[in-house]
Predict the structure.
Amino acid sequence: MARIWVDADACPGPIKEILFRASERTKTRLTLVANHPLATRPSPLIDSIQVSSGFDVADTEIVRRLSEGDLVITADIPLASEVIDKGALALNPRGELYTEATIKARLTMRNFMDELRGSGVQTGGPSALSKTDRKRFADQLDRWLVAAD
C-alpha cells in the first residue's frame, strides 16, 4: 500500500495535524523525516526518522526510501522533482500538486529566484499559511487517499 512521506523540517504544524488525522482515518502509513527530533501522535501508523544535519540529508533519505505511487509532502522544488522522477507524487503544504507537466517550470522559477537572492535582491518569503491553503491541501490529500485506496 502507498504511504505518505513528509519533509518535516519546514512542514507547518497545521499541515502535520491534517496528516495525522488523515493517516488514522484511512489507516495510511505516515513517516516524517527531519534532522531534529519530532513529536508525533502516538500511533502504529505514524513514525518519524531523524537524520543527521546537513544539506539535503532528509531529502536524500526520503528519495531513497519512497516507492512508486507514494506521496511526499514538501515545499522543496528540487526534492519534488526527484520524487516525480521516481514515479511518486509530491504535494506542497499549500495544496499545489507538483506534476511532470509543472515541475520543470517550478524548478526554473526557483533557480531564477535563487539567482536574484544571490545577487542581493530582496525577494521576500512566502505569505503565512492561510485557511484557504489548509483547505486546498486537505482536498488534494483526500483526492490522493481515495485514489490510493
